[in-house]
Amino acid sequence: MQITYDFTGKVALVTGGSSGLGKSIATGLIKAGAKVIIIGRDSDKVMRTKNELASITNSELVMGLSVDVTNEREVSDLMDLIHDKYGRLDILINSAGVYRLAPAEHMSLSEWNDIISINLTGTFLCCKEAAKYMIQNGGGKIVNVSSISAFCGFPGEAAYSPAKAGVSALTKVLAVEWIRNGINVNCIGPCDFDTPMMDEVRGTVAHNEFLKTFPIGRMGQPDEIVGAALFLSSDASNMIVGHTLMVDGGYCSV
Fold it and tell me: pTM to 2 decimals?
């Protein structure tokens, strides 16, 4: 059975939308008819992805911007720009993130701050600034991207794991704060997906052995995240509030 969603007339912002899971989710939203803004820090990569996405649909449905999600002023200006251009923001997908491994005893404070800032603080800032306009307009959908690392302890993830746990916890808080304003906040908890974020570990003996512990026996493919994201962005999920939907090949079920 194939379930399709119609987001015609909806405006969606995808952070980290120039690559990886964000790019796949942006593609899914565009194919479902949404107007999509993708943002990232690498302006060249953002423009390449924007042009690629525009080639599969009406180019007027896609906008690409270079924005640092850890910069409060840049995020605020972005939301103002979206409101001025479209008059609304219906969907926010927070998929901007960074993954780096380091033994805790050798991790610098700078590395810690960078990982926490991009994965957690950036998510908070985008939620906060988007909510101001969503509340004015009667609501919206926010989908944050966490990880199985939020619920499991993996060596080398002394900063990444707490950052993603924070994203899942933040999702719960914002969900109960904003649901009566019409803003539905939920979260996706992916396992390892075959994206550039996995370049550091892909193909290593340790990672190949790790994948054997997954009931599904493999990494996820980027397009396999899209269904969960579109579901949580749609009215079909209206009664789901503050939930982290695991898209993990069964890893957290064993």
Answer: 0.94
What's the fold here for domain 11-247?
Answer: Rossmann fold (3.40.50)
**Under 8 Å CB-to-CB from 169, ≥6 apart: which residues?**
none
* Alpha carbons within 13 A on the beta-carbon side of 62: 26
HSE value, Cβ hemisphere, 13 Å, CA-based, for 16? 24
Burial of 33 (0-12, 13-18, 19+ CB in 10 A): middle
Domain ranges for the chain, please list them.
Answer: 11-247
Catalytically annotated residue among 5, 86, 133, 160: 160
Q: Answer yes or no: 160 catalytic.
A: yes
Q: What is the mean pLDDT of each successive set of 10 residues along the chain, which is 254 residues long?
A: 82 96 96 96 96 84 96 98 97 95 95 97 98 97 95 91 98 99 97 77 77 81 94 98 93 78
